[in-house]
Amino acid sequence: MPNGNLDSWLHHESRNLSFRQRLDIAIDVANALDYLHHQLQTPIVHGDLKPSNVLLDDDMIAHVGDFGLAKLFPEADDMLSSDQTSSTLMMGSIGYVAPEYGLGGSMWPQGDVYSYGILFLEMFTGKRPTEHMFPDGLSLHSFSKMALPERVMEIADSNLVGESGEAINNIANHGDVEGRMQHCLASIARIGVARSEESPGDRMDIKDVVMELNIIKEVFLGVGIHGERHIRMQLPAEGTSQLGGD
């Protein structure tokens, strides 16, 4: 791909992705997984989702690549039948592979959701899940979870902090861009944490991720029903001052 892979953009000093670009890429990847899991006659589990397998084209549109570990999954009616799932002894990549795979679990869509949650947190914190700063007992998941909700800006990628002023001209309704970014980052951290829970049953479906990310995008850009509603909530009530007072 002309623009290489996501890993080279997240962890290269001479490259940087804006908040909007990261959000668009996250939506692209979620849409790709939704297609694999829900829109094919026989669903496909990717099995090795990570930044280096997310490829970027000329327009920075993300495409999921490397299906070397991919497996066909039973039809939806059979998804709860454990004896029909596709078992595998092959592992994904350290840091991104779902915990149940290490216990001999079968490959299934919720494993991809876990990998997506970790990738998602990495995109907005700038930290790999294998960083040395995560000793025994701490992980990118728990690191992000501890920051919710008030300390989310402390764990955000340093390239995103302070970006709001530079990005203001690209946003339809300026308003409090920094406040909107903080609100969106908190929502993003919650999504990443919720999708990377240890128990597969606690992870939401990828189609719900697509819906939530599009809402976050509307809020950040200040457009659509959700974006305009958020801006109205930020405005002072009629007859009051932004600074308060009698």
From TrEMBL:
<dbReference type="GO" id="GO:0005886">
    <property type="term" value="C:plasma membrane"/>
</dbReference>
<dbReference type="InterPro" id="IPR008271">
    <property type="entry name" value="Ser/Thr_kinase_AS"/>
</dbReference>
<dbReference type="GO" id="GO:0004674">
    <property type="term" value="F:protein serine/threonine kinase activity"/>
</dbReference>
<dbReference type="InterPro" id="IPR000719">
    <property type="entry name" value="Prot_kinase_dom"/>
</dbReference>
<keyword id="KW-0723">Serine/threonine-protein kinase</keyword>
<dbReference type="InterPro" id="IPR051564">
    <property type="entry name" value="LRR_receptor-like_kinase"/>
</dbReference>
<protein>
    <recommendedName>
        <fullName>non-specific serine/threonine protein kinase</fullName>
        <ecNumber>2.7.11.1</ecNumber>
    </recommendedName>
</protein>
<feature type="domain" description="Protein kinase">
    <location>
        <begin position="1"/>
        <end position="221"/>
    </location>
</feature>
<keyword id="KW-1003">Cell membrane</keyword>
<dbReference type="InterPro" id="IPR001245">
    <property type="entry name" value="Ser-Thr/Tyr_kinase_cat_dom"/>
</dbReference>
<keyword id="KW-0732">Signal</keyword>
<keyword id="KW-0597">Phosphoprotein</keyword>
<keyword id="KW-0472">Membrane</keyword>
<keyword id="KW-0675">Receptor</keyword>
<dbReference type="GO" id="GO:0016020">
    <property type="term" value="C:membrane"/>
</dbReference>
<keyword id="KW-0808">Transferase</keyword>
<keyword id="KW-0812">Transmembrane</keyword>
<dbReference type="Pfam" id="PF07714">
    <property type="entry name" value="PK_Tyr_Ser-Thr"/>
</dbReference>
<keyword id="KW-0325">Glycoprotein</keyword>
<keyword id="KW-1133">Transmembrane helix</keyword>
<dbReference type="InterPro" id="IPR011009">
    <property type="entry name" value="Kinase-like_dom_sf"/>
</dbReference>
<keyword id="KW-0433">Leucine-rich repeat</keyword>
<keyword id="KW-0067">ATP-binding</keyword>
<keyword id="KW-0418">Kinase</keyword>
<keyword id="KW-0677">Repeat</keyword>
<keyword id="KW-0547">Nucleotide-binding</keyword>
<dbReference type="GO" id="GO:0005524">
    <property type="term" value="F:ATP binding"/>
</dbReference>
